[in-house]
Amino acid sequence: MSDVRIGVYVCHCGKNIGGVIDPAKVTEFAGKLPNVVVARDYMYMCSSPGQSLIEEDIKRYGLNRVIVAACSPRMHEPTFQGVLKRTGLNPWLLQMVNIREHVTWVHDDVPQRAEEKAKELVAAAVARAAHLHEITTEKFPVVSSALVIGGGIAGIRASLDLANAGIKVYLVEKKQSIGGKMAQLDKTFPTLDCSQCILTPLMVEVSRHPNISIYAYSEVVDVSGSAGDFKVKVKLKPTYVDWDKCTGCGTCVEKCPGRAPKEFDEGLSNRKAIYFEFAQAVPRRPVIDAEHCLWFTRGICRVCEKVCPVGAIDYSQKERYVELNVGAIVVAIGYELYDLSKIREYGYGKFKNVVSGLQFERISSADGPTKGRILRPSDGKEPKTIGIVLCAGSRDEKHKKYCCRYGCAAALKHVYYIKHSIPDAKVLILYTDIRAFGKGYEEFYQRFRGEEDVFFIRGRPAEIFENKDGSLIFDVYDSNTGQLVNVKADLVVLEGAVEPPKEWESLRRLLKVSCDPGGFALELHPKLRPFETTSDGVFLAGAIQGPKDIPDTVAHAAAAAAAAIGFLSKGYVESVPYLAFVNEDICSGCGLCASVCPYDAITIEEKEGKRVAKVNVINCKGCGTCVATCPSGAMQQNYFTDTQLLSEVVSLAGGVK
Amino acid sequence: MGEEEFEPRIVVFACNWCSYAGIDLAGTSRIRYPYNVKIIKTMCSGRVHPEMVLKALEGGADGVLITGCHPADCHYISGNYKTMRRYLLLKKVLRELGLSERVKLEWISASEGDRWARVASEFVEHIRKLGPLRLKEVVESE
Ligand SMILES: Cc1cc2nc3c(=O)[nH]c(=O)nc-3n(C[C@H](O)[C@H](O)[C@H](O)COP(=O)(O)OP(=O)(O)OC[C@H]3O[C@@H](n4cnc5c(N)ncnc54)[C@H](O)[C@@H]3O)c2cc1C
Ligand code: FES
Fold first, then answer.
1. Model confidence at B1, in pLDDT bands (50, 70, 90)?
2. Which of A167, A399, A508, B141 has the fewest C-beta atoms lying within 10 Å of its C-beta?
């Protein structure tokens, strides 16, 4: 385009920009730059009148480039592209200048310098904008199916919502049963409903739903393709039981002589070598644990094979793989408990009567190791004094800096379990703060605050020691009273820190999702888009985005499902605008571009007797690595051509006088 | 003397997915850093052509900072590995020219707003110590 007509719009963003620099001065400066036909400032450019202002100018002045100096393009680029679209201009003739996040919010101590910087950034954008060109994108159909990874309450809720909207759902769970942590809980705060009673009907609904296929005891090992058309490879780990033949009768489990610690009871009881994860498991199918099976370890036994009425036992089973084709992916892998033995001073793992909150849930559960009677692990005696330690490893520089968001309310719930089961027990709550922020949580807290024999001590134990009889002693400095308290307890419960599951590191790389400082999945926007990611078509549900209680997990999961449904029901995805393209006249067909492309999107082809590079628009994701490698400048990238970037570079490097 | 303190001009390349987001986060968290750094966005650090770095120095910048996602975190799988290799080669050339101290590669993730502020401050101080480059004046006088 020879006749470049630029409009520059400088936003005050209330005081966010206008309180540090003078937008009018920046506007005045911009108005004198080459090709600028009109420049204006306005209080809120993104507001409806702000947008109309630009729209009218485009029409009145015949603008063919628009520059908006405001917040980060990550915030409002789509908003202002919409303005261009409405007037019939190609949206890629817009250039944003980030004068809020990159200028006024960080240089408010040097307002004069900030204003200079804003001018320089605007000048560079004007230089660059002259070289912008129209970009058209292509539309591709989406596959109307979804993968949900993780079958805790988040994955269950998301799967049901998706399936009820008519979408085919593949639910991949690494354990043999869905249910997640919630299945291990006895009751749930703050209402104290029985956890299994509200969870298991949903688990059954998932298993019966015609639109849901469960892949339990499985994991995602590869993801390729892109939003709307992902190819996912799932590994089905060997269970040594043919689940199609098996009816879940349980005879094998009954007769099996092998023993191993039961994971579901957090190691507090034993299970057989062939076992169901727990009684209400869904799918209700057993697995042989080869590490403890007598046939696998010593070559004897084979009892399960003999007693199985349907011949489902298969010791030769190998891992299998399935390939799924889905349009969207919902990540719902939750969290794991932090290894509490890392907090040396608490003696977890060393002293039998120091247990985790989750172990205490099992001790209190009717289907747990003690059939719901609160007995301490070392000798099966009823504890009379119980210490509950909050923030065990949480809000702690040495361990996890963040709050676990379940510990305070779980501790109060645990007081309830104790007082309900052992009315004369004495409970000491060792806390840092009591955070009772959820709906009904403060009321729940007040209910226990005044209870007889329940003492709130503000402090963490210094070091826990074990007596010969298994009881525990420790000192704690109570910062409320300023006194050192010596405690002797029969049982200590640690409401421990949480962290993302171990496999998250490799999984997030397959999905190209970033993580926050705690390692949890990074959302697209912490407030406005907390269940989406920077990876299109990949959504987050539940505690993998950050610690959550069940109400928040469910709300988050339903929102993720709604977002995924919205994404899939649109029916198409657009190709990335930032595609690479070749100037065939100067391409020598050297193939360096093809060798660096991470997506094999470039091939070298014969064309009119000459070798030239060709870009496959479906595979190209728009990174531009090929462009930076091309020795002749033949390879270019939409919106990031050499000319565009170099004009920006030169302008910024030289500055303005 | 009475001369004003030398204020370096620094051009920064930031990839859209990690570093640009991390730099934005410093803003949202109101973490101050020197105004001297001016950011240019590319989709991936792998897009940063050596010519862009040289043009920046030639055009008047006293230093150039290239930023990208941490190893294994690139949104485009391996773009940042290409960046790293290209950077090492570029450093060799720059060393011949006595400019290698003026260009640096740093990994900034989307959650490292505070680290970005630190990296930016340190780089500005480093270039301040090296003094002005004045390559533009040299080039223009020739
Ligand atoms: C001791 C304790 C007591 C609690 N009490 C309460 C309470 O009373 N009330 C309340 O509201 N909240 C409570 N919570 C919090 C509650 O547990 C969580 O809110 C809830 O479990 C989060 O659900 P989720 O589905 O996100 O994660 P999870 O429950 O952790 O489920 C994640 C699922 O994903 C699976 N998974 C993990 N990695 C993979 C992988 N790579 N591939 C496939 N599948 C994978 C897991 O096996 C699991 O099934 C408590 C937590 C603890 C620790
Ligand atoms: S996207 Fe950040 S380095 Fe490639």
1. very low
2. B141
